[in-house]
Amino acid sequence: MPHPYTEDQLIEQPAIDLFGKLDWETASALDELFGPDGTLQRETSGDVVLILRLRRALEQLNPTLPAEAISTAINQLTRDRLAMSLAAANRDVYELLKQGVQVSVPDPERGGQKTERVRVVDWENPAANDFLLVSQMTITGQLYTCRPDLIGFLNGLPLVVMEFKKPGVPARAALEENITSYKHPLNGIPALFWFNGLIIASNGAESRVGSITADWDRMFEWKRVEREDEPRRVSLETMIRGTNTRPG
After folding, report:
1. pLDDT at 224 over 80
2. Which of these, 114, 126, 174, 188, could form a disulfide with 163 (CB 3.0-4.6 Å)?
């Protein structure tokens, strides 16, 4: 029987419940089954992108493009970026998310090929995207296996990483002990952060959010959800609502 004062019971499970209330689909990967009929439909624990979800999202966003164009876009999104710095790899993916992926497709009117862009995110209608929160997903890197507490996926891409410590342990430790080790190019799982938009570290009482290049002093609290003039509230709930509310 789990102890009632664990990180999981006090912080992680309430966070998962809140994401569910914000209309995210939620899934536990603690006992993940692999394969196309598995928990997340991953082939192996080395996969940081949920390829089948990504493919479905791209097909829905780009209904007039052929399957070959979708496959080309997926290959460009998920290509190996280990030779790049983490920041450079992240910027590279960011441009693809923002601008779309340029692909070459047959031109039936003029013959030959023409250039199209595969949309990766529906920016005009954000609610149409696929939102999935996964807890305890095991990821195998080059040398070690890691298991972040929560990962938020947008259209199959891991855009949010959350790491927790139990009350009494500084939230800073979640960043400097866990997330920093996850980002290590050899000992960690750097591919997870090629796609990252937000990192959140919390012990329930103290929570901070930042980017992949931010140290603790450059991460910040989130104090409001909807308006600048609303009362300031420093809590993990405020941070999740302020940064991860699914558009209606």
Report:
1. no
2. 174
Mean pLDDT, residues 123-130 taken together: 95
Query: Going by C-beta distance under 8 Å and a sequence separation of 6 or more, which residues neighbour residue 194?
Result: 48, 81, 86, 89, 90, 92, 93
Q: Hey, what long-range contacts does 170-176 have (CB within 8 A, 24 or more apart)?
A: 170/203, 170/206, 171/201, 171/202, 171/203, 171/205, 171/206, 171/207, 171/208, 172/201, 172/216, 174/201, 174/202, 174/203, 175/199, 175/201, 175/208, 175/215, 175/216, 175/219, 176/216
Report which DSSP code applies to 34. P
Asked if pLDDT for residue 228 goes beyond 70, the answer is no
Q: How confident is the model at residue 113 (pLDDT cuts 50, 70, 90)?
A: confident
User: What does the buried/exposed string (b/e) look like for 194-222 if buried means 16 or more CB atoms within 10 Å of the residue's CB?
Assistant: bbbbbbbbbbbebbbbbebeeebeebeeb
**What are the backbone angles phi and psi of residue 26, rounded to the nearest 5°?**
-125, 150
Determine contact, residues 30/136, Cβ cutoff 8 Å.
yes
Burial grade of 32 (CB within 10 A; 0-12, 13-18, 19 or more) = middle
CB 210 within 8 A of CB 219: yes
pTM for the full model?
0.93
What structural domains and CATH numbers belong to the chain? 7-49+128-244 (3.90.1570.50), 60-118 (no CATH)
Could you count the other beta carbons within 10 Å of the beta carbon of residue 7? 20
Measured in whole angstroms, the distance separating CA 238 from the mean position of its chain's CA atoms is 19
Q: Is the pLDDT confidence value at 231 over 60?
A: no
